[in-house]
Write a structure and sequence with these properties.
two-stranded antiparallel sheet, Isopropylmalate Dehydrogenase, alpha/beta
């Protein structure tokens, strides 16, 4: 199997964690007989500095020709005063929209070895295994905007088509897991949410009748995520609500540095990235947590290349490394801390042992 992987290191700690992901991909490619090529391109603040554009045409063109895209992080205080359309984050939003990546998958499964790092009591977080599916290219982030000295508006709009297609992604995931799906909206207030609820209900009724569907308001879901997280499996929601809820769910694992994501459309390429930010305060120090990026590589192999066995090998290697105490400062909890490269090596060593077995 052949494939072109476009690497988008971005800003802050992005280059450090993307390098970790590339090294893991090389080991997996060798062990599974994959022929992978890599190209590196600029995005975000780094692209603004180099080309005056957070998503240069050459970057977008390369991504469109790729099999998958691995992203580090974008943004930082250096670019915080730029106009909205020129902010580093706009490069990522434009990339998602240009590639048609409408479904963002964020798994949240706290590791038993790190249960003590969660802000929740261990017994409350134990057994949590969530998959949040966030609609990614519609809603308020992509609506029309106005601004005057006295007033500002942001339009939130959704079409039936946009809701249908992301609902099918979440439904297929739920059917392959527990058969339970929760859809989150604000249908008691927002017209877009009333449309959302009606469309989700119809799609599940007509196309996935075996699924158990539940609707929850977003404020209730925010509360339930911290009071009974293990009661949920696949959670479907719109763009803004998903952005907020996935960060809330992310802290259940004890560190945002541990969590991966996949942004998918109707075909390749998908975009794979850790959910943490650019962390400019630790950039260049070699202590960034690479595990979220490495687990994003596992999602790439699972959803982009249909290599379930390789994805599971990576996930098992990460669990084993963390269980053995190989922990960067964000998850060391006062114990011995290691650096990015050592943590990456720990995963690679375990991968090689598994591949040789």
């Amino acid at each position: 199997m052949r494939g072109l992987i476009v690497l988008l290191p971005g800003d802050g700690i992005g280059p450090e964690v993307v390098e970790a992901g590339r090294r893991v991909l090389e080991v997996v490619a060798e062990g599974h007989g994959l022929d992978l090529e890599f190209e590196t391109h600029a995005i975000g603040g780094a692209a603004i500095d180099a080309a005056g554009d957070p998503l240069p045409p050459a970057t977008l063109a390369a991504c469109r020709l790729s099999s998958a895209v691995l992203l580090g992080a974008v943004g930082g205080p250096k670019w915080s005063e730029l106009p909205g359309a020129m902010r580093p984050e706009q490069g990522l939003l434009r990339l998602r929209q240009s590639l048609g990546l409408y479904a963002n998958l964020r798994p949240v499964k706290p590791m038993p070895a790190l249960a003590h790092l969660s802000p929740l009591k261990p017994e409350r977080v134990a057994g949590t295994d969530l998959m949040v599916v966030r609609e990614l290219t519609g809603g308020i982030y992509f609506g029309a905007r106005t601004r005057t000295p006295e007033r500002a508006t942001d339009e939130c709009a959704y079409s039936v088509f946009e809701v249908e297609r992301v609902t099918r992604v979440a439904a297929r995931l739920a059917a392959a897991r527990s058969g339970r799906l929760v859809s989150v909206d604000k249908a008691n207030v927002l017209e877009t949410s009333r449309l959302w609820r009606e469309v989700v209900t119809r799609v599940i009724r007509d196309e996935f009748p075996a699924l158990k569907l539940e609707h929850l308001l977003v404020d209730a879901m925010a509360m339930y995520l911290v009071t009974r997280p293990r009661d949920f499996d696949v959670i479907l929601t719109e763009n803004l609500f998903g952005d907020i809820l996935t960060d809330e769910a992310g802290v259940l694992a004890g560190s945002l540095g541990l969590l991966p994501s996949a942004s998918l459309g109707d075909g390749p390429p998908g975009l794979y990235e850790p959910i943490h930010g650019s962390a400019p305060d630790i950039a260049g120090r070699g202590i960034a947590n690479p595990y979220g990026t490495i687990l994003s590589v596992a999602l790439m192999l699972r959803h982009g290349f249909a290599l379930e066995s390789a994805a599971r090998e990576i996930e098992t290697a990460v669990d084993a490394a963390i269980g053995a105490g190989v922990r960067t400062p964000d998850i060391a909890a006062g114990g011995p801390a290691t650096d990015t490269r050592t943590a990456t090596n720990a995963v690679i060593d375990r991968l090689r042992s598994a591949l040789a077995a």
